[in-house]
Amino acid sequence: MSPSKGHGAQQMTQNLQLMGVRLPRLSELLQRRPIRVEEKVTKIVLERGISNILRELDNYLKGLHEVAIDVLSALCVGRHVLLVGPVGIGKTSLAEAIAEILHLDEPPYIFCACHSHMTATELTGDIDIAVALQAGLDHPLAYIPGPLVMAHGRILILDEINRLSPYSQAALLQALQEHYVVIRGIRIRSDFLVIATANPVEYSGVFELTEALADRMKYVELNYPDADLLKAIIRWKVDQIVRNYDVIKIPEEFLDTIVAMIGIMRSEGLIEAGPSIRACIYAVASTIARALVERREPTLEDLKREVIQNFIPSIRGEFQSETDKKTYLEKVFERAVYMVTRGSG
Ligand SMILES: Nc1ncnc2c1ncn2[C@@H]1O[C@H](COP(=O)(O)OP(=O)(O)O)[C@@H](O)[C@H]1O
Ligand SMILES: [Mg+2]
Predict the structure, then answer these.
(1) Which of 221, 256, 281 is the last residue before a domain boundary?
(2) How many alpha carbons lie under 13 Å from residue 123 in its C-beta half-sphere?
């Protein structure tokens, strides 16, 4: 009998099957053998050589060699990793890049975007009682595996892990401790290594990681890049975004102005959370796009407008209102332009 339409889990199964990911039957899952994921990682790192791996990483992200070695050295000994840092610093991109480069299996990693309403069964997967009763527990649709089960032999990326409620964190902890995921009393083997990301707890809408879970992970911090690296990152990323739009060159003074602004804001310490790298990239890219759609050259006025629009949502500090923030950004922009033009004049 065909399953009823419109069931969320079944829809997901069909999507997964369409994408070529075959869902395992429960009986296959019960026969799973242990996989030493850390040995797979070590073998790949040694065979390929760390310098080649870091060179490959440069295709994704810049300036993160040390951090990447921090991550790989943990994975090689079976230690899970927690990437911590402010929004837009490259945590998610780094987790994906490393998992992609290691390519432990096909697909190389399972990605789980954590959120506060995520239940333990969303992580583990659950038996669909209706299907199980009609077609038996071994029907491919009777059990829809969750990310903790799908990650066997791979990297599991738990993006923004500190959004998980303590209940869901407990389900995760059990899987990490026992290498088994328990679904309604059925134990399924699952060996994986986690690369998790987290924003600092002072950001709103997040739970603190339970001590037991935090203790299972190596804490790797991503720091804001220095001025030269930030400039290189913005130039490189903007170039990727506008590459196909017939843009000859990204004006150097735009990059210098943004970088000078960041320098001012950071040195003043007024800002608790500064504009993210992402906000910087898009401030410059949309300045170019603005001029492009009007078929003219981009100006510093365009940049100012875009800087304000792109920075306002991501900065936090002691501002009374959005207008306050805007005024502050305008002032910093003018000072940055002055610094840049004085420097070049
Ligand atoms: N070191 C870096 N090199 C290149 N791009 C970076 C770097 N850091 C951040 N980015 C870019 O900034 C954006 C935000 O990165 P993301 O990984 O989503 O940040 P996070 O997960 O920390 O919020 C992405 O477009 C990413 O490519
Ligand atoms: Mg992220």
Answers:
(1) 221
(2) 30
Which ligand does the CA of 221 lie closest to? 1
In a domain, 180, yes or no: yes
The CATH code of the domain that includes 239 is 1.10.8
State the distance from the centre of ligand 1 to the C-alpha of 89, rounded, in angstroms.
5
**Considering only CA atoms, which residue is closest to atom 26 of ligand 1?**
90
Which residues have C-beta atoms less than 6 Å from ligand 1?
A: 61-64, 85, 87-93, 197, 233, 237, 277-278, 281
Distance (Å, rounded) from C-alpha 235 to C-alpha 338? Answer: 21
In a domain, 4, yes or no: no
**Nearest CA to 102 among 180, 50, 166?**
50
Assigned domain for 2 exists: no
Same domain, 44 and 155: yes
**Tally of domains in the chain:** 2
What pLDDT is recorded for position 306? 97
Segment 170-202, tens digit of pLDDT:
999 999 999 999 999 999 999 999 999 998 766
Cα 279 to ligand 1 centre (Å): 10
The pTM is what?
A: 0.90
Last residue of a domain, one of 221, 253, 288: 221
CA 307 to centroid of chain Cα atoms: 24
SS3 6: coil
Shared domain check, 62 and 178:
yes
* 63 and 203 belong to one structural domain: yes
* Ligand 1 atom nearest to 94, measured from its CA: 17
144-153 average pLDDT score = 96
Q: What value does the mean pLDDT of the chain take?
A: 90
298: containing domain: 227-344
The dihedral of CA 131, 135, 140, 143: what is its sign? positive
Please tell me the predicted confidence (pLDDT) of residue 250.
86
CB neighbour list of residue 289: distance below 8 Å, 6 or more residues apart? 242, 245
